[in-house]
Amino acid sequence: MQTNTDPGGVPGDGVDALLETVGPRLREVRTRRQLKLADVAERTGLSVSTLSRLESGLRRPSLDVLIPLAQLYRVPLDELVGAPATGDPRIHPKPVRRDGMIYIPLTTGRGAPVQAFKLILPGRDPQAPIRQSVHGGYEWLYVLTGPLHLKLGAELTVLEDGEAAEFDTRRPHGIASGSTRPAEILILFSPQGEEIHIRDA
After folding, report:
1. Of residues 19 and 30, which shows the higher confidence score?
2. What UniProt keywords apply to this chain's record, in alphabetical order (predicted)?
3. Handedness of CA 149, 100, 117, 185 (dihedral sign)
4. According to the model, what pLDDT value does residue 99 have?
5. What contacts 24+ positions apart, CB below 8 Å, involve 27-32?
6. Longest dimension (CA), the chain
7. What is the 3-state secondary structure (H, E, C) of 91-119?
8. Among the residues of the chain, which ranges form H helices?
9. Rounded CA gap, 131 and 151, in Å?
10. Distance between CA 70 and CA 61 in Å, rounded?
């Protein structure tokens, strides 16, 4: 019996089923990034109506719309389309440079309630002010190479190599190298606000 397949060997009905999951996945990623449809439209050049139809499944996704969305959301294209796993559990991180810092993603984000990053912070004058932000979620960090300055509200904490901290990101917070040398840290961030604790062995 002949089976309808695409050039990659995936049955045609399997491709259709795969594409049906793209809309909910796009909505989930956009919500996780705390973006409105209008925000995405402004940054990608796609219309709000196109984005809405994609997320509701009324428009079949194509590369010309998925690529700018993947770039905006900073996720691999195969995450948006739910491509089958290859069986290789390794992650191939792509560093992202932003505001002088280097972010190295250590999770793919596929349904994971927690996102992991390695963050390299540039050296600075320890007396310089630290910019703070507020957003939903909960964060845990571990200092690989310090010192690190962690500012929560008006309180400043200095963390050295091997020390960890956790805090609610709805509280004003900011981090920066505590010296003229770069600082390297690992970060676990929970958009859902789930608390992450280290328990004694």
Report:
1. 30
2. DNA-binding
3. negative
4. 79
5. 27/55, 29/73, 29/75, 29/79, 29/80, 29/109, 30/55, 30/73, 32/109, 32/191
6. 74
7. CCCCCEEECCEEEEECCCCCCCCCEEEEE
8. 12-20, 22-32, 37-44, 48-56, 63-73, 77-81
9. 9
10. 12
**109, 115 in Cβ contact below 8 A?**
yes
> What are residue 6's phi and psi, to 5 degrees?
-85, 175
48-56 and 37-44 helices cross at what angle (nearest 10)?
120
pLDDT in tens, 66-100: 888 888 888 777 677 665 555 555 666 677 788 78
pTM of the model: 0.53
Q: Are 137 and 190 in contact (CB under 8 A)?
A: yes
Residues facing 116 on adjacent strands: 188
Q: How many other C-beta atoms lie within 10 A of the C-beta of residue 138?
A: 19
Residue 141 near residue 186 (C-beta atoms within 8 A)? yes
| Cβ count near 194 (within 10 Å) | 11
Three-state secondary-structure class, residue 159? strand
Residue 8 in tokens: 């990659």
